[in-house]
Specification:
- The chain has six helices and ten strands.
- With 316 residues, it is an alpha+beta fold.
- It has three domains: 54 residues, no CATH class; 65 residues; 141 residues, Immunoglobulin-like.
- A hairpin with a 2-residue loop joins strand 1 and strand 2.
- It has a five-stranded mixed beta sheet with strand order 3-2-1-5-8, with no helix packed on it. The protein has a five-stranded mixed beta sheet with strand order 4-10-9-6-7, with helices on one face.
Length: 316
């Protein structure tokens, strides 16, 4: 959330502070004073909580430039690693740019009619070897730790199974009643106020908060990918193969994802909707879901025409 808030402050300062007078009035623009700077700065700071609350919904926002707020320990580490890399690469870019500008000024032809003929400098050669090695080690250590954390599945409290079809998802709850249901995208003409186009499903995954969940992913047609940005999760669903990952959602809310592997003409119409609730609410939902989906014998249901109508016509 820090990077996104910082961007909000900077953009607000640029739009409000650097241009205190509107060019449309024909008035001469005055130099920026402390008062002109302080006002937009305070406005920008006051806007941060509004943006922060909105972002916690686990859904992409228009003009969003940063990562979604993390909802799992893995995503928290991904965000921290991203911020570390951002600091490192920004420092390198600023250093190299300043160095180039200094070299162009200090060693220009006008200042050095007789250029130096030195070709070696032991200290510089050691530095430009050691410093990159230190930078790479600084990047490698948290990178390997993060990869290990993602791939090592802790003891799970429950398991769910996600199956990719053309073009929708079905889910199984083997530990909570052994029921199965399909999650089809809600068509545009059925979207209600407050819902998100191309992200809503008729049935949502429901998970308990603060619970370690093992997620098994596969497919029955072509390769898909089950991805939820706020969870830091993206794993391929491969026909004939079981892949697995894990999540532990640390806050309640609704989170959205999509299939992230090109899988055919309706690839853009395979959303993922996850509702995270309290453990007691999950138990109540699981009891109702077991009865609701008891009549479903197989997840391989035929895809409705309303979903097919959302896809563009396939060209020959």
């Amino acid at each position: 959330m820090g990077c996104e808030s910082f961007r909000i402050v900077i953009i607000s300062l640029i739009l409000l502070g650097l241009y205190p007078d509107s060019p449309a009035t024909g008035e001469r623009m005055k130099p920026m004073r402390f008062g002109n700077f302080a006002k937009p700065f305070l406005i920008a700071l006051s806007a941060i909580p509004v943006f922060a609350v909105a972002a916690l919904a686990g859904v992409p926002k228009p003009w969003q430039t940063g990562l979604q707020p993390s909802a799992t320990p893995v995503m928290t580490d991904i965000t921290a690693f991203h911020d570390l890399l951002l600091v490192i690469i920004t420092t390198i870019v600023i250093f190299v740019t300043c160095l180039l500008l200094y070299i162009m000024w200090r060693f220009s032809a006008s200042r050095n009619p007789q250029p130096s003929r030195n070709t070696h400098n032991s200290l510089l050669e050691v530095l430009w070897t050691v410093i990159p090695v230190v930078i790479l080690v600084t990047i490698a250590v948290p990178s390997f730790k993060l990869l290990y954390k993602q791939d090592t599945i802790p003891k799970a409290d429950m398991t769910i199974k996600a199956i990719g079809h053309q073009w929708y998802w079905s889910y199984e709850y083997p530990d909570n009643g052994k029921f199965t249901f399909d999650a089809q995208m809600v068509p545009d003409d059925e979207i209600k106020k407050g819902q998100h186009r191309l992200l809503e499903t008729d049935n949502a995954i429901v998970l308990p908060v603060n619970t370690t969940i093992r997620v098994i992913v596969t497919a029955d047609s072509v390769i898909h990918a089950w991805a939820v940005p706020a969870f830091g999760t993206k794993i391929d669903a491969v026909p004939g193969r079981l892949n697995e990952t894990w999540i532990k959602v640390e806050r309640k809310g609704t989170f959205y994802g999509q299939c992230s592997e090109l899988c055919g003409v309706n690839h853009a119409f395979m959303p993922i909707k996850v509702r995270v609730v309290s453990k007691s609410a999950f138990r109540s939902w699981a009891a109702r879901a077991k009865k609701k989906f008891a009549a479903i014998e197989s997840p391989d249901a035929e895809q409705p025409a309303s979903v097919l109508a959302q896809a563009p016509a396939q060209t020959q």
